[in-house]
Amino acid sequence: MMKKIVGCVLASFIALGVGANVSAATYSGQDVSAYTGDPDPFTGKILTSWGTTPKAYTTVAVHPNTYSTYSDVAVKSGPVIPYGKTIVTSLPIWLDGYGASKDTFKVEDIGDINNRTIQGINRKYTRYWFDIYFGQTTGPSNSNAIKFGVKTGVSYTTY
Fold it and tell me: Best exposed site among 43, 50, 92, 151 by fewest CB in 10 Å?
C-alpha cells in the first residue's frame, strides 16, 4: 500500500512539473562589468531600481527592455532578465576586492539605459550583459570595479 501512495505522489509531482524550473534560460558569450553607487543625497541610502538595498558582489544590473535617454522610461520598461532572478555562471568569476571567485548573483537593478559603447572595446555591451555591484563609489570599491573591467564570453543560466 505504501508503494502505491509514494508512486502516486511521485507521479503527481512529475505531472505537475514540481521541482522542474521551466523558466530557466541560458545565455552564452555575454559581457560582465562592475559598477558602484552613491547614496541618494536626500535619504542617504543606496537603492536599486527594484527598490532594494544592493549587496556588494551579489546584486547585478541588467539592460532595460527599452533603451532610453530618460531613466524613468528605461526603468518602467523593466529589466531584460526579471528582478529577483538568480544568475549562475558556468565558471566562477574572480571579483577584485572580494578576494574570491563567485558564480551566483541576483538581478536587482537596471543599468546601461542608453546602450553605450564600451570604452576600449568599441562595441556595445551584449544584450544579456550584467553589471556586478561592487559597493559605494568612495573608497576601494570604485578602484576595484575599474580594475575588474569588462569580462567577455561569459555563459550563464538564470533561475
Answer: 43
Domain 24-158, second-level architecture? Beta Barrel (2.40)
* Mean pLDDT calculated for residue range 91-113: 95
Residue 38: partners with Cβ closer than 8 Å, 6 or more residues away: 46, 136, 137
Mean pLDDT, all residues of the chain: 87
What secondary structure does DSSP assign to the chain, as a single string?
A: -HHHHHHHHHHHHHHHTTT--TT-EEEEEEEEEEEEE---TTT-----TTSPPP-TTTEEEE-BSS--SSHHHHHHH-BSS-TTPEEEEEEEEEETTTTEEEEEEEEEEE--TT-PBPTTT-SBPPTT-EEEEEEESSTHHHHHHHHH--EEEEEEEE-
Q: Which three cell numbers stand for residue 131?
A: 553589471
Span 125-137, average pLDDT:
96
